[in-house]
């Protein structure tokens, strides 16, 4: 696919605590690789992937943010540019799971009136590790109570990585279609016909 050879463009943002596997997850999708030596991202890292989704060529921009507390302001400043957001936790790390609420509340705060227009999903990563602390049903119920769809992935093996991102992209594209339809359906109020004065009488020419 050439530089401009795509039907749709989509910008996704991933947030969550440090060391939950955000960079590895995006690298697995964008490059098909996994690297055990990734360090915590200092600020932002950017990936691009051209993918075919539902017979459309989609250019997907993937923004990776740091989970360090001191970088939260950077993450917040990027919310307004995102069209879809992934909140990730580590199924072997209960603290990262508990912090889901903090991350989703941060999204609501910074997106404000745009919150309902941005699809948000929760991802439990590292399901390849047998000694997990957060069970699937526990995570699914918690995310449902918060009002978000829940997915589980393994950046190491690639399990469910592609499907998770593609499903989010589908949600983003659906939102775009609905938004475009609303804009098309907005009708302008017709202007009244010009009045033409004849003598002392003002008449409307029909």
Radius of gyration: 23 Å
Helix-and-strand structural type: alpha/beta
Number of strands: 8
Distance between the termini: 55 Å
The share of residues in extended strands comes to 25-35%
Provide the low-confidence segments as ranges: 202-206
Mean pLDDT: 84
In percent, how helical is the residue content? 25-40%
Q: Please count the helical segments.
A: 6
Q: Give the oligomer, counting copies of the same chain as homo and different chains as hetero.
A: single chain
What is the overall silhouette? globular
Strand order across the biggest sheet? 2-3-1-4-5-6
Main beta-sheet annotation: 6 strands, mixed
Order of helices and strands: EHEEHEHHEHEHEE
Explain this structure.
This protein is of the alpha/beta class and 206 residues long. It is 34% helix and 26% strand. It has helices spanning 22-31, 72-78, 94-98, 100-111, 136-146, 161-185, and strands spanning 8-16, 44-53, 56-65, 84-90, 120-125, 149-152, 195-198, 201-204. The strands form two sheets. Strands 2-3-1-4-5-6 form a six-stranded mixed β-sheet, with helices on both faces. It has a two-stranded antiparallel ribbon with strand order 7-8. The longest helix has 25 residues, at 161-185. The chain is globular. The chain starts with 7 loop residues before the first strand and ends with a strand. Mean pLDDT is 84; it is low at 202-206.
